[in-house]
Amino acid sequence: QKTIAKIATCLELRSAALQSTQSQDEFKLEDLKKLEPILKNILTYNKEFPFDVQPVPLRKILAPGEEEHLEFEEDDEEGGAGAGSPDSFPVRVPGTLLPRLPSEPGMTLLTINIEKIGLKDAGQCIDPYITVSVKDLNGIDLTPVQDTPVALRKEDTYVHFNVDIEIQKHIERLTKGAAIFFEFKHYKPKKRFTSTKCFAFMEMDEIKPGAIVIELYKKPTDFKRKKLQLLTKKPLYLHLHQTLHKE
């Protein structure tokens, strides 16, 4: 498991190197090829790993629908079955932001600044972060999923992030009916896993420069947008700011 987790780290480093414009300290293709004999002999490999890397945290992968039965709780008016992603390690390492794609003539890139999210119990959330994904109408990923770092601070009824997300596809190449999802997650010490508290999404017709506030919905995250329930009757929102880059 540790070896596989280290290989996962190397693949992330290679992925980041392919998307970076800087050339120093990159994880090269020749480096990646050194992992081939390890993969071929994964069950018997007992030598020292060729790279000094930390393993990617191992997470339990849930089958579709399984997460809906993982956690049952009633949080006042925010009750209901929830989605959770348990970690095998107690240490959680959110923060998998990707750099902006290279610009192309006539094509538009989108940067979304996640400013803050309004929650009635904002101060009680442990290690909160947001998972950002772009899904088609069937809930299939159109871009890599990104996690924000843990929130900057909690203040009154707001959790503040102030972090930029670079959407990993030109807007013109997103399929009709696509949506950008924001899942607010926090750690539950009693249950020892990271839980989705609520989610929000933004559809293609909402992509325009400037500030936008979007409503929060009850978990589990409904990527197909069929059975949406507002999180609460209170006016709580996710506050975003969009910037469009066009060549």
UniProtKB/TrEMBL annotation:
UniProt keyword Nucleus present: no
Start and end residues of each stretch annotated as Disordered: 69-91
Annotated ranges, domain C2 Aida-type: 98-245
A GO cellular component entry from the record: membrane
Amino acid composition bias (Acidic residues), ranges on this chain: 69-79
Any one of the GO BP annotations: determination of ventral identity
UniProt keyword terms in alphabetical order: Developmental protein
Entry's Gene Ontology molecular function annotations: phosphatidylinositol binding
InterPro entries on file: Aida_C, AIDA_N, AIDA_N_sf, C2_domain_sf
Gene3D superfamilies assigned to the protein according to its UniProt record, in alphabetical order: Axin interactor, dorsalization-associated protein, N-terminal domain, C2 domain
Protein family (similarity comment): Belongs to the AIDA family.
Task performed by this protein: Acts as a ventralizing factor during embryogenesis. Inhibits axin-mediated JNK activation by binding axin and disrupting axin homodimerization. This in turn antagonizes a Wnt/beta-catenin-independent dorsalization pathway activated by AXIN/JNK-signaling.
Protein name in UniProt: AIDA protein
Provenance organism: Eulacestoma nigropectus (wattled ploughbill)
Lineage: Eukaryota, Metazoa, Chordata, Craniata, Vertebrata
